[in-house]
Amino acid sequence: MAFVWEIIRLGLGNLRRHMLRSILTALGIILGVAAVIANGGIGEGAKAAALAQLERLGAKNIIVRSSQPAESQQGQGSRSSFTNRFGLTRADMRILNEQFSGQLEAIVPLKEVGGQMLRGPLRLTSQAFGTTPDFLQVANLRVARGRYLTQDDLNEQAMVAVIGDEVARKFFSQDEDPLGSTIRIDSRALKVVGILAPVGLAGGQGAGQSFRDINQDLHLPITTATEVFGDLVYRFASGNRSLNAVEVSEVYFTAPDRESVLAYAEMIRRAVDVRRPGMKDVTMIVPFELLEEARRTARLWQLVLGAIAGISLLVGGIGIMNIMLASVTERTREIGIRRALGATKRHIVWQFLVETGVLSVIGGVIGVASGVSFTLLIGWGVQRLHSAPLIGAWFPATADLPTRVTGFYIILAFCVATVTGVVFGLYPAMMAARQDPIQALRHD
Asked: Is 280 inside any structural domain?
């Protein structure tokens, strides 16, 4: 035990005598560890954000969406107006209900209505959908204030609406209470009975480039949408006018569990294809498939980021080896004196390994602190870039870079740094131990 403490004392004493060199040697390890943790934190944050967005669609959901065929969109051009008929029909909906209603947890239709959403002089392109009370649970939504649609609303074809958070903020000032107020869809007025809690985008990567911000949604009873508004939706945008006739805009199918999602998705795909061959005017979105794809992509990016960070640690290890080799040459006479006084090769190897080990551990600890701090700081700082002087104009107020510090990357980076330092310090230690005592004593 006395031998061990003596070796540690000599190693630490030598590091203290050459403080600047020790700091520069450890710098490579510090930067390498910080890079591993920061890359891991950014990667984990991005993965968590992507998975959370897909989870909002419901991992057990299968979404069938009516979509305008490409040839119909291209043919629109500069024509004044015409009627596009596409997508699911109520007859399709009846057959799908008959085929799957006893097997699935829920089958919830949505029907788009109206061209514009208006209140006084304010107006937005309409994102009004007729639906049923089950949509709240199926789409993982929450009501912030008021209530959601009820079965009585459907039975009475009530002229009521539940609005998204963005609609409430754009159409009502802070002094106004949206509940009980009215919003018009084209020429028809609806009473606001509820406000949805803020959510992310619905549709994600699988929405066929038709991203929808559910915060701008307005939900009304589907019976009202069918009987009062009808199937025709008039749109005017960028000088083009169109009249779309869509009976059912979307249908949410909820499987009993995640394990059966893909099987039911294939069954629904075949059932829809029979009714609409080639599914030219229908798009199917399976969030579970997107979830798995997002996970695979995240794992790939983690490997790439890990390789980049690993190179940083490799460079740090090479730096330690170079400095220690230079130290061996510088301390040749000291090594000769120690050997002449009875030190064995094992003693010399352990002395140099203690030095490299201490540098690696200290560098790892500082690197962990730096990496965690940088990861947290970058997530906090990106959100505030829009208000920074000079560069603020280049960043939107919604700019965000989610980060997540995980224990896995901290432990991995620290362990790899320590092992790297010891491994790369082994060669200089062995070189020192092989010095001939007589030749070492003659060294100037």
From this structure: no
